[in-house]
Amino acid sequence: MKPQSKANRREKGFTLIEAMVSILVLSFGILSLSVVYAQGIFYANLSQYDYIAAKKAEAAIETIFTARDTKVLTWAQIRNVTGLSGTDGGVFLDGPQPLVDGGADGLVGTADDNAAVPDVVIIGPGLDSKLGTADDEVFKLSGFMTREIQIRDVINEPNLRQITIVMRYQAGRLQRTYTLVSFVSAFA
Asked: What was the pLDDT predicted at 158?
């Protein structure tokens, strides 16, 4: 048997420092992936609030169209109370409003809204995983989400108004906003 030279012995395997550096690099990569995964889960959970905001904005637009079509509101009433002019004279309150019951007229964002009754409740199955049983969970959105209805005249179009619904809500550490823009005409 021949004795091995020092040069041959150094070429075999890894040193302890090389192994520790490779473990450190791999650990950094795995931790980075876990942070990205956690962020993905966080933003995926936001999608349910985004969906709720979109549907509540659409519902507000639909109530305005329904009020126009059923003659609950006249064309002059489909405005904000103060609006841009300061004296628009409509029925829709200015500024962000909590999500509450629409009141006697059924219109959200007006002076007769019933603040004692939350407009938005989401009911989910409880521990038994069955909807419609005594342990169902109720989630109220009032105090967490606001809706602002802005109604503005379209310049040079006396029979057309722009409706902007702005939904604001807190989702985790983020302040989120959803905006829906539509137009309503004086003609049903």
From this structure: 92
